[in-house]
Amino acid sequence: MKVVRTPDERFENLDGYSFRPNYIQISDQLRMHYVDEGNPAGQLMLLLHGEPSWSYLYRKMIPILADAGFRVIAPDLIGFGRSDKPTEQSDYTYAKHLEWLTTFINKLDLQRINLFCQDWGGLLGLRIASDHSSLFDRIIAANTFLPTGDVKPNEAFLKWQEYARKVPELDIGGIIQKATATNLSAATIAGYNAPFPSAEYMAGAKIFPSLVPTSPKHPETKANRAAWAKLGQWTKPFLTLFSDKDPIMNGLEKIFQQAIPGAAGQPHMIIQNGGHFLQEDQGIEIAKKVVAFIQETNT
């Protein structure tokens, strides 16, 4: 496996992102980066990003959560951010991402986790939470899902899979802009582009959409069905914070609310003026709602 590491200077003076880098070796070849802010002894908040973003997506939320007394951890998935990046698309699978992230959680000995997951952060985080429920206290799902491939996705998503996989180079910042409800500054777009100086660094981002189960024949379909069965027994607090301007995820929050016992009676909300990357559009509002939710459900 050939692995590249984005030069540190690419992350200097990023707009709104001045967090100290932290690293952990999750295999002989792979080093994973994470933000670790706030009170080391506080309640743990784990923020999981998706495609093609990185922990930069959470830069508005991290200070608010830290100021509220939480220990806030936001990793960069392998292939993203300041984490190492295998250069071949074949180096990435859904199962490997689960293994890498589970190793990260175990090596840091993370427990009593409050999980905030969006996009692929949910495909990974919800699977891990269902398999290791004793490590998690609460879940906040935002513009995400846990697909089994039993329902065929729309044609637009299938075209996105093919495009991302085959295009010579992804316009990372442009993709983020198209999936937000606000006009991003040049500095913000530069922040999203920072981890990817060339196409060599983009294999993980290019293949990620193709790893989503879109057929019952997908190798993770059976495990995702099992995860839904486990989540059907989940009685710990479960909150949905979806946005009003995400046509792909629109309405999926209702499935969580109906299927998961812990979602009953929670203050679910549709975030106004938020695109798919609602953390970018309404990060401050969302962080405040997360703080209130955890404080109200503390026992």
Task: Describe the protein in words.
The structure is a single chain. 46% of the residues are buried. An eight-stranded mixed sheet has the order 2-3-5-4-7-8-9-10, with helices on both faces. The chain is globular and about 45 Å long. The model has no long low-confidence stretch (mean pLDDT 96). It has a single domain, classed as Alpha/Beta hydrolase fold, catalytic domain (Rossmann fold), CATH 3.40.50. The protein has helices at residues 61-67, 94-107, 120-131, 155-166, 172-178, 186-193, 203-207, 221-231, 253-259, 278-297; strands at residues 3-4, 22-25, 31-38, 44-48, 71-75, 85-86, 113-118, 136-142, 238-243, 269-271. The chain is α/β, with parallel strands linked by helices and 299 residues long. Helix content is 34%, strand content 16%.
Furnish the topology, listing elements before pairings.
Elements: E1 3-4, E2 22-25, E3 31-38, E4 44-48, H1 61-67, E5 71-75, E6 85-86, H2 94-107, E7 113-118, H3 120-131, E8 136-142, H4 155-166, H5 172-178, H6 186-193, H7 203-207, H8 221-231, E9 238-243, H9 253-259, E10 269-271, H10 278-297
Parallel strand pairs: 4-5, 4-7, 7-8, 8-9, 9-10
Antiparallel strand pairs: 1-6, 2-3, 3-5
Helix pairs in contact: 1-10, 2-3, 3-8, 5-6
